[in-house]
Predict the 3D structure of the following.
Amino acid sequence: MVKISDVKVGEVIKNEFNGITRDLLKKYAKASGDTNPIHTNDVVAEKAGLKGVIAHGLFSFGFITKLFEDFLEHGKYGKLVETDVSMRSMVRCGDLLITGANITKIEGKRVYFDVKQTTITDVDIKDKDGNIIKQFEAGERGYISEKDIEKGLVKTKDVPEGILTYRERIATPGSAIVELFE
């Protein structure tokens, strides 16, 4: 149960989705009626300069509203009053989509959040000598740019198979307000 007395400034709610595939984007295109082929056809996306299909903006935005609907148990404890986000980066097949919201203020029954949706894009795994053991779509298609490297978005970490190179960037920052019933 979510009551105003249960929430605190600084509290974070979060969800992660690691299932973005071409098949899912095709299903979303059909369900939403947005059949723009940059979301479903690599050849068309490449001709548009995208290096491969990208997820629909509203597809990724849906995970933001889902975060709040889950938090409010689908209207049982309150309602989503407002969202204000800026879609800044593309979401692609294979990305881990992390949606988080940090409570910044509580006024009456209204709870204010800073929203941040981040993508984690795996590039490759190398052994200790720098040989590629596994390459992901981002590495194969060249999704990582020099700008990404210059901005410090490309990182590495040790994984059981070797050293994973990945990009972590904010795709959608913004804010939201929910109003609790109690």
Notes: The beta strands are 12-17, 78-85, 96-107, 110-126, 132-135, 154-159, 162-180. The domain at 4-20+55-180 is CATH 3.10.129.10 (Thiol Ester Dehydrase; Chain A). The chain has one domain: 4-20+55-180. Residues 127 and 162 are 5 Å apart (CA to CA).
